[in-house]
Design brief:
The protein contains 9 helices and 12 strands. By secondary structure, it is α/β, with parallel strands linked by helices.
Length: about 260
């Protein structure tokens, strides 16, 4: 999966500018950056959902635009920020939707196995008969992730999968993502929590104002100088007791303090 010189312009506004990026098999690649920087648009370009105004997006060595939708869905799975379902499907039915790309193929024989495994990994077995629209935001997020896992593709593209989750489930979801990225499989994940990105990603891409300004390991990208400049706020980067990087704001002295 790669982007070669991709720019995206919408309504005369440039959203992405000259992005070149390769996602390697076996890696978790975290996209980070301020609000409105272009992270979701970049994810859309990688997935083939958004057509570049300039440049090329490639999956399995072919331009995404050359694939029929079903065939493209056999190579990559997408989790969007919005977790909405129009009809009152049960949780299990929503997870089953992830198997649609494999209807009529030999891999359809694994449907039940993949659905059960995805539900177990995300801890939603007890929700199987509940209606999706009756769930909390965090429960919907985990069900939607299970749908993507059940699709069982070589590339997963996840837009803020931890946004609606408590600390326990944030960590659980990121461990699932980490474990998924093995062999020929890779994950690209948009994350706002920089410390989560540092703990679980092999590489980080920092996007600011539609430009990919830094790509590398968490240690290479997540420095106080780079992050403070990108987010326009003083940030400190330190080591947690487990050895992972932690990113915290440097807060000013409260008004009225001695």
């Amino acid at each position: 999966m790669s982007l070669e010189g991709v720019s995206i312009v919408r309504s005369k506004r440039t959203i992405l500018t000259d992005i070149t990026l390769s996602i390697e098999p076996g890696e978790v690649f975290a996209l980070v950056g301020p609000n409105g920087a272009g992270k979701s648009t970049l994810l859309g370009a990688l997935s083939g959902e958004i057509t570049p105004s300039q440049g090329t997006a490639l999956v399995a060595g072919r331009a995404t635009s050359s694939f029929r939708p079903k065939k493209l869905s056999q190579h990559r799975a997408i989790l969007l920020q919005s977790n909405q379902v129009s009809f009152p499907f049960s949780v299990r039915q929503v997870v089953e939707m992830g198997r649609n790309p494999w209807v009529g193929t030999d891999r359809a024989d694994s449907d039940e196995q993949m659905i059960d495994a995805a539900m177990q990994l995300t801890g939603i077995e007890q929700l199987a008969t509940r209606r999706f629209n009756e769930l909390s935001g965090g429960e919907r997020a985990r069900v939607s992730l299970a749908r993507v896992l059940a699709q069982d593709t070589e590339l997963m593209l996840l837009d803020e999968p931890t946004a609606a989750l408590d600390l326990h489930h944030q960590d659980r979801v990121m461990r699932v993502i980490r474990d998924h990225a093995t062999g020929s499989r890779a994950v690209v994940v948009v994350v706002h929590d920089l410390s989560l990105a540092a703990a679980y990603a092999d590489r980080v891409g920092l996007i600011v104002d539609g430009r990919l300004v830094a790509v590398g390991t968490p240690e290479e990208v997540m420095t106080p100088e780079i992050l403070s400049d990108a987010y326009s706020v003083p940030l400190e980067v330190m080591r947690a007791p487990d050895g992972n990087l932690m990113v915290v704001p440097i807060r000013g002295t409260p008004s009225g303090s001695d």
